[in-house]
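Below is a filled-in request sheet from our internal design queue. Each sheet records the structural input a requester submitted and the sequence that came back. We keep these sheets so that new team members can see what a complete request looks like end to end.

REQUESTER: design group, bay 2
PRIORITY: normal
MODE: inverse folding
CHAIN LENGTH: 452
BACKBONE (tokenized):
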């Protein structure tokens, strides 16, 4: 079975001849702005593996950019979608009620670590929609116009979320953007001011937030502070829990809602069902969670959850949408959560993270170009620099490593404000043999590329 195979390239190089034909067709039919640098054309996928059009086997460490925590084509999810498809595909939630929508909302209400005992959840189609709706809900509840986001943040590609996103290569030429979005510095501790202790650095980043209140928007006009528990596109940078505790205090003192963007961190990726369980354990739960990606196991679905009093403040018609809570997506999501809980994929994420970090730590000791590794659970970043002293980013090396790894059967992707981080988002159903094979490929690719 493909799900048990190891990476194997049978063509002289990739893309092979069949894949090359389809990639050429893509270049003619699809906008270049949807570009890809990966020489792969998927034929089928199982677990953490995909087979391309030429019969090559690739280990996927990207997982649809965090969508496939449960892996490709999980047979139980496939069956759940088939069963639902035999009944009906769609029933718009504000016209006809279907049980899957209600059951999924009940399930998420029961597990989401937001503040409050009674919760409400609704569904949309994507992470960007989830983030944008979370902002609308915060504004409706607080009656305030502004929000604060952070350096390194990625929240989506709608007009609102492009404005919230820090990296403007995702928004070139798209302005003017909505007003009332202000930015503070995120605690990127690897690149903290020289000579600062971690405690000093956290205070430095908190002072950055206070400067937003001073120079951009007084706190009484801020509806929400929106933060990723672990930044994705920003370089897989975890938010220090002491900083989150301080954010919670700032929000409580000023009537601001704390919104967690769990689009990429959710659904067992970080070693918890939702990463904000770490926040709740530390006594600083968020007010609103926006999530998507792996919730549907590959079928588009996003969700927003908050306590009842917050949701009750939203005027009728302001939230929702045609396809939100689609019946097929709800069926998939219910089965995904059932499997994740039953098979303890959060625990498996912690095991995977330990294996990967042990290897990363060894490389960091041996190689001058490995500046840092970090993350939570199985959401890990490996940062490349020219040398450890200067920490000068090395994105060119990362690009060559990604291409070399692909030739050996490993799919990787970069991230980070400097494009110098390799992200680890491998499906959590990866076998230990596949994991070790992937680490071997990555190490071989690194050593070959630095030897050039």
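RETURNED SEQUENCE:
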């Amino acid at each position: 079975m493909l799900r048990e195979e190891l990476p194997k390239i049978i063509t002289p190089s990739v893309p092979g001849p069949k894949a090359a034909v389809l990639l050429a067709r893509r270049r003619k039919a699809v906008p270049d702005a949807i570009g890809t640098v990966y020489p792969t054309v998927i034929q089928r996928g199982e677990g953490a593996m995909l087979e391309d059009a030429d019969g090559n086997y690739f280990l996927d460490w990207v997982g649809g950019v965090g969508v496939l925590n449960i892996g490709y084509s999980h047979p139980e999810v496939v069956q759940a979608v088939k069963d639902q498809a035999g009944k009906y595909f769609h029933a718009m939630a504000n016209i006809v009620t279907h049980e899957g929508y209600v059951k999924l909302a009940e399930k998420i209400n029961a597990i989401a670590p937001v503040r409050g005992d009674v919760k409400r959840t609704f569904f949309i189609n994507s992470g960007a929609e989830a983030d944008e709706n979370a902002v609308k809900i915060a504004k409706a509840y607080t009656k305030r116009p502004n929000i604060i986001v952070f350096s390194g943040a990625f929240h989506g590609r709608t007009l609102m979320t492009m404005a919230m996103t820090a990296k403007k290569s995702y928004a070139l030429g798209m302005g003017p953007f909505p007003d009332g979005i202000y930015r503070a510095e995120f605690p990127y501790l690897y690149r903290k001011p020289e000579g600062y202790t971690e405690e000093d650095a956290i205070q430095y980043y908190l002072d950055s937030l206070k400067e937003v209140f001073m120079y951009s928007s007084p706190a009484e006009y801020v509806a929400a502070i929106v933060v990723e528990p672990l930044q994705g596109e920003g370089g897989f940078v975890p938010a220090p829990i002491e900083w989150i505790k301080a954010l919670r205090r700032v929000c409580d003192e000023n009537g601001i809602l704390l919104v967690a963007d769990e689009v990429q961190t959710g659904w067992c990726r970080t070693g918890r069902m939702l990463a904000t369980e770490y926040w709740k354990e530390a006594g600083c739960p968020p007010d609103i969670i926006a999530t998507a990606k792996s919730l549907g196991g590959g079928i588009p679905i996003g969700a927003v959850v908050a306590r009842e009093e917050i949701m009750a403040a939203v005027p009728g018609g302001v939230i929702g949408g045609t396809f939100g809570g689609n019946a097929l997506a709800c069926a998939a999501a219910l089965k995904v959560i059932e499997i994740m809980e039953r098979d303890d994929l959060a625990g498996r994420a912690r095991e995977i993270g330990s294996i990967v970090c042990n290897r990363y730590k060894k490389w960091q000791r041996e190689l001058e170009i490995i500046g840092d590794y970090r993350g939570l659970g199985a959401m890990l970043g490996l940062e490349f620099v020219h040398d450890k002293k200067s920490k000068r980013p090395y994105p060119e090396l990362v690009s060559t490593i990604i291409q070399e790894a692909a030739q050996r059967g490993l799919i990787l992707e970069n991230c980070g404000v400097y494009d110098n981080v390799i992200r680890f988002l491998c499906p959590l159903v990866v076998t230990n043999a596949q994991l070790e094979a992937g680490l071997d490929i990555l190490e071989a690719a690194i050593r070959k590329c630095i030897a050039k």
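SHEET NOTES:
- Residues 345-366 form the longest helix (22 residues).
- The two ends are 37 Å apart (CA to CA).
FILED BY: M.R.
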